[in-house]
Amino acid sequence: MAPRCDGLSDAAMKDLMAQAEKLPISTVVFVVALQAEALPLVDKLELIQDDKPPFPIGMPWIRFYGTYRDLFINVVCPGKDSTLGVDNVGTIPASLVTCASIQGIRPDLIINAGTAGGFKAKGASVGDVFIASSVAFHDRRIPVPVFDLYGVGTRKAFTTPNLVKELSLKVGNLSTGDSMDMSPQDEELIIANDATVKDMEGAAVAHVADLFKVPTIFIKAVTDIVDGEKPTSEEYLQNLPAVTAKLTQSVSQVLDFISGKCLSDL
Amino acid sequence: MAPRCDGLSDAAMKDLMAQAEKLPISTVVFVVALQAEALPLVDKLELIQDDKPPFPIGMPWIRFYGTYRDLFINVVCPGKDSTLGVDNVGTIPASLVTCASIQGIRPDLIINAGTAGGFKAKGASVGDVFIASSVAFHDRRIPVPVFDLYGVGTRKAFTTPNLVKELSLKVGNLSTGDSMDMSPQDEELIIANDATVKDMEGAAVAHVADLFKVPTIFIKAVTDIVDGEKPTSEEYLQNLPAVTAKLTQSVSQVLDFISGKCLSDL
Fold first, then answer.
1. Which residue among A79, B16, B20, B125 is the one 20 to 30 A from A252 at the CA level?
2. Could you tell me where the DSSP H helices lie in chain B?
3. Nearest Cβ partner of B141 from A3, A180, A211?
């Protein structure tokens, strides 16, 4: 679903969206924070890097593209920090690259794919791949009426009951924050969000996709157990290669399932 | 300084920027999170609301514009959450509207103006108006080498020694986070950032302005004392009208000073 065309009424827009739900999905944008997460997918799908991506000139954001079966696939990454050389992780770069990608690529579907921390108390294990049923923030505490709800920013993901059933994927709520660790205040809100997985981008991607009314799904592979014994960053780095391979495998299964289907079939 | 034109080398870009620093400032974009903060300024400068702002259709972002002396003034706000009706405060909407404004308005100078919490231990009092010397985040904790520095994301503001001297403004470091309250973890990083004022947008505006190389200054008026006796949200709401009036007065003095000058005169 492309951003709203100028001059369309809300009713006409709804109509268009209902029609689009019955057309086969054509253009998919993957928003992936880390290039280490994106590259195995890029290799597997034989995508090529766009040397003139549809982004403002000079931005660090990266786009890989190509076709897979009948799908036009795009993998976008927020790229590297120009001074420090590390990936632009977190909510701000994810929201900016999602916004630019919606405007420049006009996807039918966004898939935010990446690694996440999991909570064993909610049934997560390292290597599990989850589809998020809802996303919310856990580090935007604004104790003023209504602003408190805005801060948490809970949004339902696009529902994909057939996809989940067919691929036997686990389903859980995703909670997003800009820190890799978890403070007691974060933990309190993660519990309030009833989250099984925790990442650093999902709810930001959802915020932007919601502004443009683009259906979005979230596929998160668990690299570390937040409520476990090992320190998150150590466990994360240790498991990243194997879990990224698992994520890539799940994502290709998702694409095989999506291919030829319309949104309402998912 | 507009975003880089296609095909320019780094050297040519530097040249252009050096030339621009010697031309009178023409287009100014104010990024203001709350409409309650923006409207007194909009009234004072007799700006009008743009009913076709240079943003993607359907976005909640708002632009007011007009001329003041020889300056083309724009005040942009991230607008309201379409479901909850409250202002889109915080880093994600601020970064999105800054990005869209740079592309759509091509300012010579960005001014992020708004209210902030102040630390009395660092010399701040309610009603003080600060110019930030640097900005950083206090809620992006990533305990992995180099990513830790990326998370804090310290950036120098555009330096304005003559402006600060002429208007006798206070100067201090600004620290940004998406929460209105302050957790012990936030406090630790705010102290590490040596911050005198704390807001919810500044470092996000700086991140985007830095990507596009647009000089940015930060004018923050203190509504509440974070290390004081009163709860932040209560003190904030109580002081908002009077402090916003003070902010508006300072901003017009800043515009009077800027008018007719080039960036290197500030």
1. A79
2. 10-21, 35-44, 91-105, 147-152, 161-166, 184-192, 202-212, 232-258
3. A180
